[in-house]
Amino acid sequence: MSARLQEGISHIKANQFRESAEAFRDVLKDEPENPDALHFLGISLWNLNQTSEALVLIKQSMEIAPDRAHMHHNLGGVLSGTSDVDAAVVNYKRAIELKGDYAEAYFNLGAVYKFKKTDPLIATMKSLYSSSSLSDADQEYLCFALSKALNDTEVYEEAFHFALEAARLKNPDYNPNVMDVAVKEALKAITKEVLSPVKGRGNNSETPIFIVGMPRSGTTLVEQILSRHPQVFAAGELPMIGSINSQMREFAKQNLAYKGSIHGFIPMIPPNHFNNAADACMDMIHSNASGKSFTRFTDKMPQNVFHLGFISMMFPNARIIHVRRHPLDTCVSCFLQRFRLGHEYTYRLDWLGQYYRRYVKVFDHWRKVVPLPILEVRYEELVNDLENEARKLIEFTGLDWSDDCLSPQYSNRPVRTASRWQVRQPIYNSSINRWKYYEAWLSPLISELGGMDWIEQQIEDI
């Protein structure tokens, strides 16, 4: 493997996809049929939202090297984010045929595939698990895959057993005190006075819509509904707000002697910094849209729920859509899911309960102080009365109604979140009260949430 090819792969691992694409293009100048360079250039372009070219390159690489398991696996990943889920399943299964212990392929197959009780893959996975031949990392993938398969087949006790085992193997690095500090700081530092309009601060565009809420609460479904509108660009989960917050906090530490967390520095920052940052965000959004014309864009990064004060100073005319779902359904869905990045709090039930309480606390604060319009959406009402709730969403955006918004499953935009299979299906309500299947094992979660009285109060408040 050439040094430049290895460099490109290192950039992919670091999520530096523009740099990786450049490296692979360099390799292809001298080796135009190098299957690895073609393949990983395709993967890089996929992550840069250049889906059509990505698929051409990946398929070209597989014509040259048709029996490489990782290539079928990666193509499955690309296809699973598009509307071609059936082809994704075929490629994941082919990867497993070529490499029987490909634990990550079993896991990713489960994200786009509903298992049946007679599925031979379940027995295969159990046999592989019992062999103890896998590394801890692969065993973790396999346990999550088995948990998903057994949940599909309604073997709930065993499904939860494998979820617990997967979480143990994950062994995440998470400190709940960090969240406590951040929430206390928000309540103290971000007041109505701090957020009151200041001349020259922020970008006055009405284009931004921020969809927030807990992961697995229905934010992806809301994004899909809005994405079907011809005047909306659904930008996915963007890291831009968190990144800008980190950059400004570093500025405050170096120049303003700041020593706190993610909120306390905000009142110190000169107004023009928010304007410059917001303008840069808008430039990035237009670049990502690749020429698509739009009058609204959506950002559905879940962590933005902790940055609404910051967002209101960058975009004083933004809109906020807050999606809520039954606390136990939300948390159980989080616990059963292996997230690709972040969300370490989801791997222990007590941490999940603590995190959810902090999320509710900080959002209650934002309701009181943030001068932005906020639409509350309840997941259960959305799936039971799609048209009425979708019309509320479109009215809130200030756009004219489009009937396309009633068929979110037909969106052809790439989806990279854990909900990528669900959003390709017709709207269904079978996930409502899913937590009851697992109630016997939820005492640590229920306790940290504050007991059933607190949970029932949340349901009434939704």
Percent in helix: 55-70%
Rg over CA atoms: 23 Å
> Low-confidence runs (pLDDT<50, min 5 residues)?
none
Look at the structure and name the CATH superfamily of the largest domain.
P-loop containing nucleotide triphosphate hydrolases
For the record, the CATH class of the largest domain is Alpha Beta
Percentage of residues in strands? under 5%
What name does CATH use for the topology of the largest domain?
Rossmann fold
CATH architectural designation of the largest domain: 3-Layer(aba) Sandwich
pLDDT averaged residue by residue? 93
What is the string of SSEs from the N terminus onward? HHHHHHHHHHHHEHEHHEHEHHEHHHH
Question: What does it look like?
Answer:
The protein has a five-stranded parallel β-sheet with strand order 2-3-1-4-5. Helix 4 (51-64) runs antiparallel to helix 5 (69-80), helix 6 (85-98) runs antiparallel to helix 7 (103-110) and helix 7 runs parallel beside helix 9. It is mostly helical. The radius of gyration is 23 Å and the shape is globular. The protein is built from 22 helices and five strands. 57% of the residues lie in helices and 5% in strands. The protein has helices spanning 3-13, 17-30, 35-47, 51-64, 69-80, 85-98, 103-110, 120-131, 136-152, 156-170, 176-189, 192-195, 219-227, 240-255, 271-288, 308-314, 327-335, 349-369, 379-384, 386-397, 443-449, 451-461; strands at 208-212, 232-234, 296-299, 319-324, 374-378. It starts with a helix and ends with a helix. It has two domains: 3-133, Alpha Horseshoe (Serine Threonine Protein Phosphatase 5, Tetratricopeptide repeat); 176-461, 3-Layer(aba) Sandwich (Rossmann fold).
